[in-house]
């Protein structure tokens, strides 16, 4: 299974230590500056999950490691079950697009993203402007069960209440001067996928009440309409 996933066919590794095969370390991970999930699971008798950088014929890769100890009737560890999966949304090596990094802080955030991705609950990304929140939103969407659906990005900066409402909720024909035909809002366009509200702290105060209803129920009313529309999306 390891050979199939990480492309090490022909490389002798049966009977080798995991830190030699995966990390090319001469000593165990915890002696080389990496956390060892097996050591912690042995000490706590609890499942452990973290991100490691494994060396493969394709180069170094981020790998999500989930390890569960198997206990005997006396509570002693007799075996381990380990799941390894490559993290396709991030790279260790420089590239033009996507997430790139290998620092401890980067791996901590990437690990949190991997844990959050399978859930359906809203996610709050915090950080200064320019720190890559949209990149992480895209990675979260790509790692989720909604990856086949749309990712709709709404930039909340610089938009007036009226403009943001019409862009987010859409409008009906004749709702205002110049509304010559019905327009689908971005919230409705995100149905089946992910809605990313960038710089949500910039939303005008009066608009936040309407936005709260959207966040809580996924429901909204297009400008100039009496009907309520429901959209199934994950909010970031």
UniProtKB/TrEMBL annotation:
Chain ranges passing through the membrane: none
One BP annotation, GO: regulation of DNA-templated transcription
Keywords: ATP-binding, Kinase, Nucleotide-binding, Transferase
UniProt GO MF annotations: ATP binding; kinase activity
Domain Sigma-54 factor interaction: 99-236
The protein's name in its UniProt record: Sigma-54 dependent transcriptional regulator
Origin species: Pseudomonas amygdali pv. mori str. 301020
Origin organism lineage: Bacteria, Pseudomonadati, Pseudomonadota, Gammaproteobacteria, Pseudomonadales
């Amino acid at each position: 299974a390891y050979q199939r996933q990480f492309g090490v066919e022909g490389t002798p590794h049966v009977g080798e230590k995991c830190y030699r095969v995966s990390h090319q370390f001469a000593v165990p991970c915890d002696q080389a500056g990496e956390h060892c999930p097996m050591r912690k699971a042995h000490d706590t008798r609890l499942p452990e999950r973290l991100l490691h950088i494994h060396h493969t014929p394709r180069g170094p890769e981020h790998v999500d490691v989930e390890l569960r100890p198997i206990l005997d009737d006396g509570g002693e560890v007799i075996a381990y079950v380990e799941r390894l999966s490559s993290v396709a949304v991030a790279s260790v090596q420089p590239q033009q697009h996507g997430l790139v990094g290998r620092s401890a802080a980067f791996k901590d955030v990437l690990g949190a993203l991997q844990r959050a991705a399978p859930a359906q609950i809203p996610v709050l990304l915090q950080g200064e402007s320019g720190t890559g929140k949209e990149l992480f939103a895209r990675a979260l969407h790509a790692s989720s069960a909604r990856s086949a659906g749309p990712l709709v990005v709404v930039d909340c900066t610089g938009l007036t209440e009226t403009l943001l409402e019409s862009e987010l909720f859409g409008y009906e024909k004749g709702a205002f001067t110049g509304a010559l035909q019905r327009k689908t809002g971005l919230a409705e366009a995100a149905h089946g996928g992910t809605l990313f509200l960038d710089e949500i702290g910039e939303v005008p105060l009066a608009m936040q009440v309407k936005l709260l209803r959207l966040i809580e129920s996924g429901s909204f009313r297009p400008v100039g309409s009496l009907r309520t529309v429901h959209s199934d999306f994950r909010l970031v």
